[in-house]
Amino acid sequence: MNVRVNEERLARELDTLAGFSAGPSPGVTRIVFTRPDIQARGWLKGLYAGAGLAVREDAVGNTFATWQGFEPLLARIGTGSHIDAIPNSGQYDGTVGVLGALEAIRALQSAGFRPRRSIELLLFTSEEPTRFGLGCLGSRLLAGTLDAGAGERLRDRGGKSLNEVRAAAGFAGELDAVKLPPGYYHGFLELHIEQGPRLEREKVSLGVVTHIAAPAGLRLSIEGTGGHAGAVLMPERRDAFLAAAELALALETCALETRAIDTVATTGVCEVFPGAVNSIPSCVKLEIDVRDTDWERRDSVLRRFAEACARTAAQRKVSIQTELLNSDAPAVCDPAIVDILKQACEAQGQSYLPLVSRAYHDSLFVSRIAPVAMLFIPCKGGVSHRPDEFSSTRDIANGVRVLAHALAQLAS
Ligand code: HGY
Ligand code: MN
Ligand code: MN
After folding, report:
1. Which of 13, 195, 240, 298 has its CA 20 to 30 A from that of 250?
2. Which H helix or E strand runs over 206?
3. d(CA 390, CA 394)
4. For ligand 1, which residues put their CB under 6 angstroms from it?
5. How far is the CA of 127 from the centre of ligand 3 (A)?
6. DSSP labels for 269-299?
7. pLDDT computed for residue 2 by the predictor
């Protein structure tokens, strides 16, 4: 399928989308259901309408822009990604999969392609864990792997529940209704930046993802005894931050001990209370991210880390509450769809590499209800989740052409 991608329009739209941000450029900050997110959603719905797509939004704000096929009762082909962005991040993470898919659809329309199966472009709500501590809320609910009780249970830092926040953003209705019926999608494809260095380093145009690593998230609350930084003598202290520091290092050790390069662990959030230079930390909140392509190996890290927590609690006389936020299974991409992506790369004359995705994506959860595969494009220096995240228009357009080719094949 020979399609012409309007590279200038795509680059312009990516830049416009980056402008919906709570912080100064070049960083992008677009937390779910904040003003920039809601404004960006409204702007995108205008683009969907311009492409003649029928738009619906579900109770959690997942947005479906549908190109109706001439056999609309058949299981659909899904594509898409997310537009929410962590604080001070880049402009390509997620957005390439939304605007790139829209461009693929418009290119197919211009080429006179008529889909037999409807093609549905999704914008998933809250792929990033920033606001509610759990990533992929929209795709988890679509897949039925997150119960509707999460609407009250999940709270942001201000104590607002997901239900309160989504209602204020204009998304009402029961979360139970978000789950898609079995067989809704015949296949699902997500275009995304690699968020790693391999494609650029090996000078390969595209990555065809075969596996998506399994993430687990923990939240720890470490309670010690506060006090005056000058008055309390060292032997009498129960310093919560020193316990937290010990646990952050213990987490690193637990990950390195598997001796597998696919095991990674990060202590990404550390909040110290009361947060005064002359006051001994009485409480520290940590948020921890552990991933691996191997489920069992990842869970062995969690087990060893729990033992380290018990040791530190005893030695430092602090109390440690641990909340397991999520421990998800990895995803194996569907071999038939992986092959279609490989054939599309070949048809478009693009080199490709089979890759494991170390980042998680909405496709991880869509894979629970549909055959999925992902297509990666290179990003400069492998950098992501930073203002200097960059993918060239040429690389993005390569991905869009291959995505269009694969969508056409799946929707025929
Ligand atoms: O953290 C991730 O893997 C994704 O970027 N949310
Ligand atoms: Mn991300
Ligand atoms: Mn992403």
Report:
1. 195
2. strand 206-212
3. 12
4. 127-128, 135, 359-360
5. 7
6. EEEEES--TTEE--EEEEEEEEEESSHHHHH
7. 80
